[in-house]
Each structure stands twice: as structure tokens, then as C-alpha cells.
Amino acid sequence: MTHLLNIENLHVAIQGEEILKGLNLKIKAGEVHAIMGPNGAGKSTLASTLAGRESFEVLEGTVRYQDEDLLALDAHERAAKGIFLGFQYPTEIPGVSNLNFLRTALNAQRRQRGEAEMDGGTFMKLAREKAQNLGISIEMLKRFVNVGFSGGEKKRNEMMQMAVLNPTLAILDETDSGLDIDALKVVSDGINALRSADKAILLITHYQRLLDYVTPDHVHVLADGKIVRSGGPELAHELEEKGYQAVA
Amino acid sequence: MTQHSESPSDVAAFHAAYDHLKPALPGAGWLRELRHVAMTRFLSLGLPGRRAEQWRYADLGPLRKGSFSPVTLAQETEQARIDAAAVPGLDAPRLVFINGRFQRALSRMEGLPADLAPQSLREVLITGGGSLRDLITDLRDGDAFDQLNTAMMSEGVVIDVPKGLKVETPVEIVYLVDDADDRAAHLRVVVRLGEGASLKLIESFKGDDSRFFTNLITQTTIADDAHLTLIRRQNEGAETVHISRIYATLGRGALAVHHLATGGQSARHELRADFTTEGGDVRYQGIQLARPHQTLDTLTFLDHAVPNCTSDQAYRGVLAAQAVASFQGKVLVRRDAQKTDAKQKSDSLLLDRSATSNAKPELEIYADDVQCAHGSTVGELSTDQLFYLMARGLSPLEAKAMLVEAFIAALCDGVPDEAARNAFIETARGWLQNLDIHDLALKEAS
Ligand SMILES: Nc1ncnc2c1ncn2[C@@H]1O[C@H](COP(=O)(O)OP(=O)(O)O)[C@@H](O)[C@H]1O
Ligand SMILES: [Mg+2]
């Protein structure tokens, strides 16, 4: 089987400073990968680069997704092809309601894929169902995107978007940070619900905690812009015990 | 040589139009004299130059170059074009002006209360006699455009809302420009609310690409406990010069103005409100959407002359590449106007750094026990927000459009009529759709 995502020798600079320094990573459909690593290692840089943040400059390397040159696509084209970035710090957008945002996004993706737009009624049904699963009230859906949301609510809202957009490759950047144990459970359920043979999930996390709920197939350590070690779920425990320094 | 040979050259064309039209201008006696005095003043004032503080940000170039004479013939306009200019889905009595001429046959009065009978200003000027002095505000001390309007006004409407009458239905006025190159409309609209009366006026300005000049003065008096809501959508053609002024005199009543301006080559919008009795309240919410190479300009002047009045102004401007949009908001709190509460906020969004936004809040406060707040911001679209939207599937244009809509959402939401509110939003969307990616160009700051 070919890889859903294949990153080779990726070098990325932000404002002229090289942050990713030759990163390699292969992900197959059906797999869950976890990336762990110290602060500032470049985890979010990797996530944003994959999602198509323009100001991040790819200096070298290739990224293939579904056997296509991912780096040649704009962010919205990547989204339409099934890439979803769960933001570490979800952006607040005053003046745009969650519902309007979600429906616009979903239909923008469908249009790009040549699918019919989803009508209001069907969309509302879908949104209600997903919201209920995640313990999100309709009230919250009517509010402006992430405005005045607590840290946990923002993360849950990212999960809501993921559930509605139903991506093929979900990249979740510290979706577990700042969650209490109940919220963590809800978020993990949301992630597990997405798991399937034709999809893949890349979990970026700081803690072993999330991995108790979502068992990864592979765990990688990212340090100083590179994957320095890879292993199975046991690697996460080892990191927890000994720290990055010793493991990397 | 005529006696006017020394008048500034930029007013010569207006002078010629006046001389030509004089015999046909409605009204006799006192009014004729008033017009003459106004024209004389206009000629000596000339068009305001850029050095005039209040005209620093306006563009009167097209008026200096052009020659605009009032329309005398009625234009045959299809009903569909009028409907397209009106607020979609608004089921209300409607007054129609085409090229500045009132169209009784195209207007519909059904649905008005029995004791509300809008009259054609032209007819009133012709038949009015002595009562005209009460009707037409003396603008003797006003600027060139006040004088020009007084001299030339030939059409408009008079709406008298009697004491105690709360008009349930909104009343719509459509001003349409249709195939009228080098023509002008000098309009005067008079709205008078008696004690405890209320009225909601919804106005739409729309036009084709005629080189036209709209010169409108709306004068309103609002008695105690009366309430006037004025919702105005200015979306005239790309070659039109638009100057509109609202002159309000308030008793212990309230005025709410909701304004959306996107039209014209160069457009100037003014609101002046004079508080004359304690307890008056003015709310102003204005939006300007300026496309490339367009000049939009708003000037407000709230005169808090008496104590215990309130005012709240919110302005939002969105500017595409090479556009100029300005907001000058003056609040004067006179010595006696204790306990005044005056707020003003202006926010502008530059879609490209080649746009020019001028925002000048001007607070002149002579009373000591007052609450006055003002704030002004100028910003660009946030690259973080754009990336967030694009990462969810919106194209760069869709993402920008969504953020622009969000930027003006609060002011659209404030429009107190559902059909008019939707018309504001649709007009904004239409404005956005007419921009291409270059007008919105904004390199991600890296
Ligand atoms: N927008 C940015 N502008 C400038 N530097 C950045 C930006 N984002 C990240 N960096 C820098 O890139 C490095 C990696 O950051 P990041 O990818 O966020 O690390 P991690 O997510 O692993 O904690 C850090 O040194 C950080 O300061
Ligand atoms: Mg990070």
C-alpha cells in the first residue's frame, strides 16, 4: 500500500530562520501517528506547513499527499482534498457565527470537489448531531467563532469542525492541552470516531495523557526540526518517564 | 459682460444652468427672492477648495470639470428597474424619483395611514404661499452647496407626521438615475414629526453610469417624544457625484440614522443634528465601502447645545486598493450642555496599503460634567484569521469577503428593519463581488 502522506527531507524557514531541518515522515491510511517533542521543536511549524500557511517558506524537500504534490496546492485546496488542521491556538473571528462559518467552509469544500452544496436543513441536522456528540450547545454554535470561548471550548470547537468536515488526514496540534479530564474524554471520543481504514490522524501532543485514550500506531519524537526517534506506543511512556533529553 | 463675470470659473456652469432654468423653477414671490439671494451667495462662495477644513478629504474634481443642468423631461423607466433599485422584499408605500423628478404614477401610496399624505415638494412650492417660510429652512449661513440647493431645488417631498401618529409601516423612497448624463438633481426633502409621532424612512439611491450630480438636503424637525429612523442606502452609479445632507433639529425626541454608502465616483454624506431640548437622542451608524479610485466622505456634526442629551455614533469604513474614505465626526458640547453623553467610534479596514483612510474625531467640549468618549482605529485583515478560514476550505477571496462582512456585521445587524438589513448585507456582498483579487491584494505579512 502506498502512503497517504509522505514527507521527505522537509526544510522550512520562518522569517528566514530555518525551523524544520530535514524532516521525514510517512503515514499510511488507517494509521494514527503521534508526534511528541519539546517546546519550540517545530511541531506547530510542521502542522501549519502541511495545512498551507503561505508565510512559512519551504526551502527544500517534498510532501506527497494522496500521490500528489501537496506543496503545490493552496490552503483551501488542501482542505478540500481532506486535510484538516486542528489549531493549537484557534483563531477568534468576531462577526462570524460558528454555524455560518461551518456551513460556508463545508460548501466551499464541496464546490471545489464538484459536489452539490448542502442545503440549510441538511446542514443543521448534521451540525446538531455532531454538536450533541461533543457536548456543544446550539447556543454555542450561534456565537461568533471562538470569541469568548474558554481554552477547552475552543478545542472542542475544533473537534466540532473536524466532525462536520470529515477530513481524510487530521492533523491535531495539541488539541489535548488545557483540557480537563472530562473534556479530554470528549475530544478523544471525537478523534476515535474519525478513525477508519481510509483515514489517518497525526496527533501532536505534549503529554502521554491523550495517548491513554487514543492509542497511536506510531510515536515520533521531534527535536530541533527533525524526527529523531520513532517507535510504537511504548515510546510515549518512555518519554514520559525519562524526558526528551534522554530519549532523543 | 454680465454682472457675474467675476464669479469663480468652476461655478459658471451652475450659474448658466440657473439663468436658463430660472423661469421654470417652482415658486414665486418670497421664494424667488430666496433663490436669487442663494445663487448670489453661491457665486461669491464658489465650490469649496481643499483648504477648507471640512472639505479636505472630499473630491469635488468632477463637479469643477462637469456641467450639470437639472432634468426637465421625464425619463421613461421600466418598473423592473425601479424594483431593482428598491429594497428587495420591502412591502411598504414607495415614493419614486427618477433623475430627481418625482414620479407620482410610479409611486404607491397604499398602506399609508389616512392622515399621512406625502406631498410633492414641487407642488407645495408652487401652491404654498406664506407657509413656505416655515417649510424651507433658511440656510443663508450655509456653504456653497446649501446655497446651490436653495437656488435650484425644484423637487422633493414633504412628509408631515401629525402629533401622536406612530406610522407602523416603513415608508420607502427610491432615487433612481437613468440615462441622464450631465444632469443634476437638486432635491429637498422635508420631514416633520409632531409630538409623539414616529416614522421609519427607508431610502435607496441607485443609478446607471450617467455623469450625474445628486444634491440632496433632507431637513427634519423632531418634536418631543417623536422618533425618526432614517435608513439610507447610497449605491449610485460609478460616474455620479453625490452630496447628501441631513439637517435635523431635535426636541426631546430621537433620531436614528443607518447609512450604507458605496456608490458614486465621489460621494459626500453629512449629518448635522441640533439639540434644542433636554432629553434628545441621536444614534448614527454609518458604513462606507470604497472601491478602487473612489472617494467617499462622511461628515457629522452633533451640536449639544442643551443639557442631558445623548448621542452615539459608530462608523466603519472598508477600503479597496487606491480608494479614499474619510470620516470626520464633530461633537460640540456647549457650555450649558451638562450631563451630555456623547460617544463616537470609527474603525476602518484597509484591504490594501494603497488605500487612504482619514478618520478625524473632533470633540469640542465646553461643559464640565459630561461623558464623552471617542475612539478610532485603522487596520488590515488579519493573516491569522485568513489562514484559519482558508485552512477550512475558503478561497482567499471567499475568506476576505467573509472577514469584510464580519467587520461591518454589527452595523448591519443594527438596521431596525429586516428587509433593509438584508439589503445592506446584499449590497455589501455585491460590492465585494465586484472587486477582484488585485483590489483586495494583501500580502501575508511574514
Ligand atoms: N509565526 C512565527 N513567527 C516567527 N517565529 C515563529 C513563528 N512560529 C514559530 N516560530 C518559531 O519557530 C520555532 C518552532 O516553533 P513551533 O513550531 O511553534 O514549535 P512547537 O510547536 O514545537 O512548540 C520556535 O523557535 C518559534 O519561536
Ligand atoms: Mg506548538
From TrEMBL, chain B:
GO biological process terms, semicolon-separated: iron-sulfur cluster assembly
Pfam families reported in the protein's UniProt record: SUFBD_core (PF01458), SufBD_N (PF19295)
Similarity-based family: Belongs to the iron-sulfur cluster assembly SufBD family.
Entry protein name: Fe-S cluster assembly protein SufD
Lineage, highest ranks first: Bacteria, Pseudomonadati, Pseudomonadota, Alphaproteobacteria, Iodidimonadales
Residue span, SUF system FeS cluster assembly SufBD N-terminal domain: 30-173
Domain SUF system FeS cluster assembly SufBD core: 180-407
Segment forming the signal sequence: none
